Amino acid sequence: MRIDIITVLPELLESPLNHSIVKRAKEKNLVEINLINLRDFTNDKYKSVDDYAFGGGAGMVMLIEPVYKAIEKLKSERDYDEIIYTSPDGEVLTQRMANQLSMKDNIIILAGHYKGIDQRVRDHLITREISIGDYVLSGGEIPAAVITDAIVRLIPGAISDEQSALSDSFQDDLLAPPVFTRPSDFMGWKVPDILLSGHAAEIDKWRHEQSIERTKKLRPELFEDE
């Protein structure tokens, strides 16, 4: 899998994409992640990639030309399954969406910045817009890192224990059950007896029941969305 991230701040993405599971997936050649500096695609001597909005108003807008050039250069080298724009008004990222994206071969993520990008980019080049929540950040780099992490950890082989990923919260539209580790009794706070019983089928049943109970209590809207 290949993920190309177009950004005005590539240095902001270097750390989160070079540690933990993402780093190991890259070392195993399961994923190739490239940071594309948008400023490399402008002819402006100051490397500016933004300008004032037509019609006035506060804030700057990402220029259409460097974004177009960056995307077209990448598209000239390979076919892309999705060209994603990180935007607060996009569809909210879900585990189901991450599962779908993890099965793609090539993805471009355009990290939004300033007041956003020229609408013509969204109309003619972007195939999908994704938000990580109903709030505004200083830029789309953090959402791009979140989306990438959510996708990469699902690639077969990225996590040594693949069963772990399959039991994550939201994987089956339920929250994960509570987990415990040693000691089994700490200051009188005890681990549920069922988890110490060794009965795998009963433990699985208990965990599923706990997942349903926790989801109903903490995220009831997940049931309403079904």
Textual characterization of the structure:
With 226 residues, the protein is of the alpha/beta class. It has two domains: 2-152, 3-Layer(aba) Sandwich (Alpha/beta knot), CATH 3.40.1280.10; 167-224, Trp Operon Repressor, Chain A (Orthogonal Bundle). It is built from nine helices and nine strands. It has helices at 11-14, 20-27, 64-77, 95-102, 119-124, 141-152, 162-166, 200-218, 221-224, and strands spanning 2-7, 32-37, 50-52, 60-62, 82-92, 106-111, 128-131, 185-186, 189-190. The protein has a five-stranded parallel sheet, with helices on both faces. A two-stranded antiparallel sheet has the order 3-4. A hairpin with a 7-residue loop joins strand 3 and strand 4. Helix 4 packs across helix 6. The model has no long low-confidence stretch (mean pLDDT 92).
Question: Can you describe this structure in just a few lines?
Answer:
It is built from nine helices and nine strands.
- Largest beta-sheet details: 5 strands, parallel
Beta-strand content estimate: 15-25%
Classify the helix fraction into a percent range: 25-40%
**Radius of gyration based on Cα positions:** 21 Å
Number of helices: 9
Q: For the record, give the distance between the C-alpha atoms at the N and C termini, rounded to a whole number.
A: 31 Å
Q: How are the strands of the largest sheet arranged?
A: 2-1-6-5-7
The beta-strand count equals 9
What is the CATH homology-level superfamily of the largest domain? SPOUT methyltransferase, trefoil knot domain
Which descriptor suits the 3D outline?
elongated
Q: Report the uncertain regions.
A: none
Indicate the CATH architecture of the largest domain. Answer: 3-Layer(aba) Sandwich
- CATH fold-type name of the largest domain: Alpha/beta knot
